Amino acid sequence: MRDRIQAVLRQLAGSSEVEVRWLHTLSLLEFTGARKISRTVADRHPTLEVLGHLADETRHAFTFKRLACEVAGREVTEFLSPVAAATWFQSLDRELAAWATQVTGAADVHLHYLLTTAVVERRAMVLYPLYKAATRHPAVREEMGRVVTEEQGHRRAIEDACHAHLSKVGVTLEPALALEERLFEAFLTVLEKDVAAALEGARAA
User: Fold this and answer.
1) Most buried of 46, 51, 122, 185, CB within 10 angstroms?
2) Is the dihedral of CA 100, 104, 105, 106 positive or negative?
């Protein structure tokens, strides 16, 4: 799947018009993550760790939106595969919660948050460096480097917390990662088709 991701990112980065829509989709996904945090583990004043994560996700959403507008030279409203992107995130969050409840025997909002964060950040650590390498815009490349550093900063702590919870019931993180892989492939398939259509439209314009 890594090769498919790399290929589609190189394709969309070949057109600033299409890349703008991709940046806006990344902003949407980061915003969705921030909103999910604020509605669950941050519905009351949260821990320092959770508040820091919420701040990171919100800032990343702002950063990607700002970059989209800078590259476009205007306010951006268009996305790439927004329904498929939202479906990936929402389905992942929902199915991970159901899986965790089943294997642990109890619903645990904090564990659900940890699991979703862990697998989404695993995906980001594949997606974001590949996009950083693909983009032709120096400002985007520089910001992507910062985002990757921030994501790496707390990914290990989140994964360690997941392992600590799951080891109590003799379960690893692998089933959760396999679940994300299946759901992300569905998103990727739609993205590939939408990028091809967008590039064709840009050439015809």
Assistant:
1) 122
2) negative
Strand (E) or helix (H) holding 108: none
Run of H or E residues at 150: helix 138-167
Question: Does CATH place domain 2-193 in 3.90.320?
Answer: no
Which residue type is seen at 14?
G
Give the residue extent of every domain in the chain: 2-193
Instruction: Give residue for tokens 């941050």.
Output: 42
Instruction: Note the pLDDT tens digit of each residue in 12-38.
Output: 999 999 999 999 999 999 999 999 888
31-81 residue pLDDT tens: 999 998 888 887 788 888 889 888 999 999 999 999 999 999 999 999 999
Tell how far CA 12 is from the center of its chain.
17
> Measured between alpha carbons, how far is residue 92 from residues 42, 87, 100, 199 in Å?
19, 8, 12, 29
Tokens of 1: 């799947």
Residues 6+ apart with CB under 8 A from 99: 175, 176, 179
Q: Distances from the Cα of 114 to the Cαs of 46, 100, 165, 176, in angstroms?
A: 14, 11, 10, 11
Region of 98 on the Ramachandran plot (φ > 0 left; ψ -120 to 50 alpha; else beta):
alpha
CA 40 to chain centre: 18
**pTM tops 0.70, yes or no:** yes
Which backbone phi and psi does 168 adopt, to 5 degrees?
A: -65, -25
